[in-house]
Amino acid sequence: MSHAGDAERGTLEKAAHENFPVAPFFLPRAWRTDLMAVYGFARLVDDIGDGDLAPGGADARLLGVSATDADDRLLMLDAFEADLRRVFESTPRHPLLRRLQPTVRRCSLTPEPFLGLIEANRQDQLVSRYETYDDLLAYCELSANPVGHLVLAVTGTATPERIRRSDAICTALQIVEHLQDVAEDLGRDRIYLPAQDMKRFHVQEADLATKTAGASVRALVAYEAQRARDLLNEGAPLVGSVHGRLRLLLAGFVAGGRAAIHAIAAAEYDVLPGPPKPGKMQLLREVGVTLRGEG
């Protein structure tokens, strides 16, 4: 089982490097266990979609994909979806999905959010440009919003209103991540800035490939950052609608987004040299503001 252990460990170690803590220490142990199981799934499906799996092909073998097909991302995503369905019907092959199975049963999770995350990664193989902001929002419905649905389901707090607020927060966090990663995404031949907005701000694709952003790129990034800020404000009442340690977790998500936007603004919206990252003090300040409902 050493290959399986390596595949599982490599994926879960990435949790330490995330923008927003996935399962912080202050949560009850059962929640932490369940959220890390969900994280393991989300991280692995992203790694398949980005071609970032650990070398050696352990994940492909676990999913029953031959070494010659391991680089075929769509085929790997199909195999991963088949293994996800085993979580609900029998016994999955991949250790991260075996880890997920008790969480699915304990929290009565449905396949839909997991299938959404797989579909988002399929879309990444087929779509590398987004014409309108609405097109981007539809992508975020698959790539980001299911994570919020899963957090609410794991903690037993889902209601239609909370899901609506959660969607606004998750979409905002996805947009912020896209703004931080403009240069990295372009390296993968992906652009998540809507083409319509690029035209409006007179930004060409070549302008995104420079070492530092010109005035038009900065204006475009500032415009998209404001959209993300508005979405975070729309979602922030979710924090006050729950209690205890969950309130702190959700405040951390909102504050993480706000602090990242602050870092982007502090860099004068020049995201091309690399992702502007917020400092710990800024993050703590934003947590306080969010918990007090002043955002």
Secondary structure elements and pairings:
Elements: H1 2-13, H2 29-50, H3 58-62, H4 73-89, H5 95-106, H6 112-126, H7 133-143, H8 145-154, H9 160-180, H10 182-187, H11 195-200, H12 215-235, H13 237-240, H14 244-266, H15 280-291
Helix pairs in contact: 2-4, 2-5, 2-6, 2-8, 4-5, 4-6, 6-7, 6-8, 7-9, 8-9, 9-12, 9-14, 12-14, 14-15
- Kindly report the average pLDDT value: 92
Q: What structural class should be given to the helix and strand makeup?
A: mainly alpha
Largest sheet: none
User: Number of DSSP helices?
Assistant: 15
What is the molecular shape?
globular
- Number of DSSP E strands: 0
Low-confidence parts lasting 5 or more residues at pLDDT below 50?
A: none
What is the CA-CA span between the terminal residues?
Answer: 48 Å
- What is the H/E string? HHHHHHHHHHHHHHH
Beta-sheet strand percentage? under 5%
Q: What portion of residues is helical? A: 55-70%
Measured on Cα atoms, how large is the radius of gyration? 19 Å
Report on this structure.
It is globular and about 55 Å long. It is built from 15 helices and no strands. Helix 6 crosses helix 7 and helix 9 packs parallel to helix 14 (244-266). The chain is mainly alpha-helical. It has helices at residues 2-13, 29-50, 58-62, 73-89, 95-106, 112-126, 133-143, 145-154, 160-180, 182-187, 195-200, 215-235, 237-240, 244-266, 280-291. The model has no long low-confidence stretch (mean pLDDT 92).
